[in-house]
Amino acid sequence: MKVFITKRIPDTGIQFLRNKGYEVVIRDRGGLISAEEIVHGIRDFDGMISMLSDPIGADVLAEVKKCRIIANYAVGTNNIDIKTAKKLGITVTNTPDVLTEATAELAMTLLLTASRRVVAGDRFAREGNFQGWEPLLFLGKGLDGKTVGVVGMGRIGRVFARMVSGFKAHVIYHSRTKQDVSYPLVDFDTLLKESDFISLHLPLALESRHMFTEHQFNKMKNGVVFINTARGPIVREKDLVAALNSGKISFAGLDVYEFEPEITEELKKMDNVVLLPHIGSATEKARNHMAILAARNIDAVLKGEAPLTAVQVE
Ligand code: DGY
User: Fold this and answer.
1) Residue 99, ligand 1, Cβ within 6 A
2) Which of 107, 128, 154, 197 is the most exposed place for a label (fewest CB within 10 A)?
């Protein structure tokens, strides 16, 4: 049987499939995939490993011939029309758990890097501007005694909250339902009003698209630190730029963008913003485990067994 992979993933996953006798075809190029290439994958292959940047909507799914599984190489599956896939009998799987620590770690990294001005300070030092210790040089915001608002208390939110708790900070969270954690659950407005730092850990869905616009930014404390490692379209990026310009948000750390891979030009010019190229899960360990999990899901479904991590239709 034949499996199509839309970008090169770690060899662990490719070897796993080849050792089981699958013919594996890899689209071995950078850049975004075209609709024709996705159609080729789901029309001519038995299974496909897709990336979070591959848009798999009803239009391309309509072309399906023999594909029985789309194994998304990510925990988020907002790039796939899950309902249509289910109607067509295609299993969709994702890669939960194996990237939790890595992604939470990156959110923590962004929080500290942005709020302690690490990137701007590094640039300043490299450019030969360091003339000696200064009492007012690169003052940032530390976590000591601060309130960190976690939006979404799923796997990644929990690990992030655990990491924050290692500092002298107080965690509050907002989520649709109360979770089995010791941090206080608060309504959305309370989180916006009380947090000194806000970090997003929720999936992109109809209800979370543009959950953060001018309206929500205006309710936040002046000088709040804002971190997004979840999905770009949860935030209206032009309103984020305005909130950074007005000082409402003092620092931001972003791994994801509303119009990814495009990044709003103004953000690139601000030195109170740290920008990363969607590398939340980018550790060797996480990416290897994601590759094996995606490959095992493909193998299970093509053998007629239950997938390990199927995505459920809500
Ligand atoms: C995912 O897997 O959804 C993450 O965004 C990867 O960084």
Assistant:
1) yes
2) 128
